Amino acid sequence: MQQHDTDWRSQPHAIVERDGVTYTLLGTAHVSQSSVDAVRAAIASGQFDAVAVELDEQRLRALSDPQALANVDLVKVIREGKTALFAANLGLAAYQRRLAEQLGIQPGAELKAAVDDARARGLPAHLIDRDVGLTFRRTSEKLGFWQRSKILAGILTSLFIDEKLEDDAIEKLKQGDMLEASFSEFAKASPQLYEGVIAERDRYMAARLRQQAGSARNVLAVIGAGHLTGTAGHLRDAGTAPAATIAELEALKPKSGIPWFTLFLAAFVLGGFAWGFATGGVDVGRDLMLAWVLLTAGLGALGCAIAGGHPLSILGAAVASPLTPLHPALASGMVSGLIETWLRKPTHADFMALREDVQSVRGWYRNRVSRILLVFFCTNLGTVLGVWLGGARMLRRLVA
């Protein structure tokens, strides 16, 4: 096996002894060949009997398997309401691609090397980072509606822009955290975002290290340099039992059993119709209903059409848009997206070309996967605009 002469101790690291286990935390930069060499040298030294890595299963698959996207069940993604998460992961993948092209190294190469070298030497390779989907969802819970909208808009915009990355973003990666670098523009003005993306993960990885140590007595933990101080500090603290900490940091807020906003909207719209028929007769009631249907159906269908949806998808958007705002479990974009998926089922080639195609506007419309995402989001956007305009028109009639 190839020997590595790099002195890995010259890299940022911390040593923590706890519960009879010596943890060596090696801080890496996610865009540095020297970090790759240091990781391989540390594992080749033979002084560690287990390796832990700042990855979760999903991110490891993305690094290891170029065909991972081809295995995505898009219908399941839409039905389970994970379209925004899928778009966020796609945005992260596009960001990583631009980094690789600009800097000449695949971001996270040292993490993949740690897993590969550990397994090649028969050492346990533990993935200690929290699932990226959970991180996105818990962070989203901490943010307000406008903050979430701003971040999602930024992610989607970044997919269309193939620009050179700014120096401060590259410096973030040299400090060692992919997610922080990806959201650095927003994290500056959002303590809640920093808490979910960075601080919680420090606690989580410290707890996972303790939980997964097993019979190992010398554990090498390969983590981004930006996590080094926080993770080492939590590892030293007595704190809570690892299982309790992990359960706390994986928990999501229970969804409210009563969809208050939907109930209010339904009461407002249906009450407006009833008021129109009761006080103004058939003509006023019919006018209110017709305006609501035309605005929501028309703008929902227009959004789908702008996204390049199939004619039947556009029809589905038009039929669903007046009704879905009144139903808590249904979105017009879900209806049009499912129809689009059924009529224009993505091929394996579409999934394989996805990261390349989302680098241009034309590619978004050419690729069936990205076009389904456009259909979903644009239909919902059109419907929301129609609801606001229809509701405002109805309110004017009610107070006139």
Describe the structure.
The chain has 400 residues and is α/β, with parallel strands linked by helices. It has 20 helices and five strands. A five-stranded mixed sheet has the order 1-2-5-3-4, sandwiched between helices. α6 packs antiparallel against α11, α11 runs antiparallel to α13 and α16 runs antiparallel to α20. The longest helix has 47 residues. The chain is elongated. The N and C termini lie far apart (83 Å). The relative contact order is 0.12.
Element layout with pairings:
Elements: E1 13-18, E2 21-28, H1 33-44, E3 50-53, H2 57-64, H3 74-79, H4 83-103, H5 109-120, E4 125-127, H6 132-142, H7 145-160, H8 167-175, H9 178-182, H10 184-187, H11 191-212, E5 218-224, H12 228-236, H13 242-250, H14 260-306, H15 311-320, H16 332-343, H17 348-352, H18 354-357, H19 361-366, H20 368-399
Parallel strand pairs: 2-5, 3-4, 3-5
Antiparallel strand pairs: 1-2
Helix pairs in contact: 1-5, 4-7, 6-11, 11-12, 11-13, 14-15, 14-20, 15-16, 16-20
